[in-house]
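Progress report, Aim 2. The chain analyzed during this reporting quarter is listed below.
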Amino acid sequence: MFQAVKGIGITLAAFAAAFALHIVGGATDQGWLFAIAVALIYLIATGFPAIALWVSGLAYKSSERANMVYTSGVIIGSGLTLGALWATNGREFAAWHFPLSIVLVAIVSAVILFIRSRVDPASFASVTS
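Predicted structure tokens for the chain:
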């Protein structure tokens, strides 16, 4: 269980750090810092499930625990992505934000999982943790 909590917790902490960085960049009128922070916010939010799984050290679809981390990550990542889209759209929701947040999480997480499979092929082995 520690692996699951570690993966989700560290990924949430990374998102919080990127969010704090965007506040600092905006408050100090440093456009470059703000832009980097917003890019990190979107990367972490949309890739949340895959990042949390990678940080946890669990292999993709290797156990119920890995499935729980990934499923929780999809829910958290979709919510964070929805919030980022809301903020980018002048703090107003649009109907397209809801499906787009899920699609973005699916695409970015798939890309991260693909990269992980190339960097660490054992992460897709049938391992139980």
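Residues 2-27 form the longest helix (26 residues). The chain has a mean pLDDT of 92. These observations will guide the mutagenesis work planned for the next reporting period.
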